[in-house]
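Review this chain:
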Amino acid sequence: MKLGIEGRWAIVCASSRGLGKGCALALAEEGVNLVINGTRAETLEKTADEIRTATAATVIAVVADVATVEGRQKLLAACPQPDILVNNAGGPPAGNFRDFTHDQWLAALETNMLAPIELIKATIDGMIERRFGRIVNITSGSVKAPIGTLGMSNGARSGLTGFVAGVAREVSQYNVTINNILPGSFDTDRLRGNVNRIMPDGKTIDDIMEERRAEETSGRFGNPQEFGMVCAFLCGANAGYITRQNLLLDGGTYPGTF
């Protein structure tokens, strides 16, 4: 399926690996020019080369941390007026909420709520003027089904979800959409990192990963490529009537009706 976004420009945040990389690749396959970022230069350049080789897309790699003002300025300098913005950032650590410090909470809010809001604020008026804009926020399945050990993620990402729900209503008349994708368990470094932090004594990461996999209704974890394809669809020219939605991608594991 051709999504009608060839030649558009996209900023895809935290895209050197994992779900962000999956989104960047899927958009590049649709002919979208990319600005990608990560904090590890070697990993970022490797990803940029992989996407260029696979798709012949224009890919600008920016070493930057989107959680910082400087990092966001670097991204916007490389692409001041993107047609597509994919907000993404690594989540805060898992743990018992009693152990979270005030500074950790502030860092979680900065990374997973305020940084996306700042990027939206910097780019949305240009989208309105051009009568085209697609904003996708990668949040978490914990927004819909909170996870006890991910208290900071639950809070910060839910705050972002509430904010964009209001803004999305204001801008949909201009063919600008804002949607959130809520990943469940995807086979990424992030998932393994969370498992490692709460791993009981006497068990290996592979042991816990296998247990987690068995708990999935689909019997497997998701992969970043299929996640990216959903993101690309939401960014398509013909997806303009889909906005203000929270799309849960978890293979059916969430047990509720709604």
